[in-house]
Amino acid sequence: MAKGRAFRFRVALYLALGAGALVHLLCLHEPDLGFDGDVTAFWGMAGEGELEDARALLDRMHERFPTDPRVPLLQAWLEQRTGDRAAALAAYEAALPLCDGDEQTLEVLVAMADIRRLQGRSDRARRDLEEATSAYGESARTHHLRAVLLMQKRSWNAALGEIDRLAEEDSMSPHPRRLR
Question: Among 56, 72, 61, which Cα is nearest to 38's?
Answer without folding.
Answer: 61
